[in-house]
Specification:
7 helices, two-stranded antiparallel sheet, single chain
Amino acid sequence: MKHTLFCFLAITALLCCNAGFAQEQPQKSPEEQAIEEANRLEKELKLTATQTFYVDSILRHNFELMYADIENLKDRGSQDVDTYRAVSDKWIQKVIDALKPVLDEQQHIKYLKLIGRGKEYKKGKDGKYYLKEDLKKKKK
C-alpha cells in the first residue's frame, strides 16, 4: 500500500495535538520534509536537474502553506480527522496540478502511482504506463 508524504504529514499534525508526543519526537520542518521528498522523487522518477529544481521549489512552497493550514486548524482546536484529511487532499491536488507541467507524461503517471493515485493506469509490456481501458482495447 502506497501512502503520500502528505497523508503522513496530516496524520503527524493530528498526533502533534498531543503535547506529549510533540515533546518526545522532534518534528522536521516543512522545508526539510520537502527536500527529502524532492530527493526521493528525483530518484524514483529519474528527474533532470531542471525538473528537480522545479519539483523542490514547488514542494517547499506547498509544504509551507499546507503546514500553515494545519497549524490554523490546530490553533482553532479542530480535532476532526475529516477536516485534516480535506486539507491534506486539497494540498495533494495542488501539488499534482503544479507538478504536471514539470513532468513528462510517464513521470506524471508514475508520480500518481507513487502517491496511491493513478489507479486507472497500468504498465504495459513495454514498461510504459497506459490507461487500463486502452490496454484492454489493444488486446482485442
